Sequence to fold (147 residues):
Amino acid sequence: MTTIEAPRTPARPARKGVNWEKWGWIYMRASGLVLIVLIFGHLLINLVLGEGVKQIDFAFVAGKYATPFWQVWDLLMLWLALIHGGNGMRTLVNDYAHNRTVNRILRWAIYAAVIVLIVLGTLVIFTFDPCPAGAAADQLPSFCPAR
Fold:
């Protein structure tokens, strides 16, 4: 006689430790909601209010990055979007790259790209200086005092 397991019986015993897939799933939902607010706020301020896209130039970005509020706003948008996108790409690789070596290479490439872009984007946001010291006066924007 053959015994049939109950339908909800786990195929293998539960693993101990952190369930990274569950937390990745939760992160995708939470970051998606926050990104909707951040992105539509960004579009509203930069494109809808004011003069639209023609107002966006070097001086506009310099003015925005002169305030900590916009630095933090853009930093949150950058970090959440890159981690959200990287997690989505990791999920696609896990779903479609069945060869273990290819899967591992692709996942590490995604992690590396996300880390490099987060570091570079963060550096741009916090080190942006529209009026660098020692620059030639003819290379400075018109709103910079002559140094």
Observations:
- The helical segments are 20-48, 58-64, 68-96, 100-127.
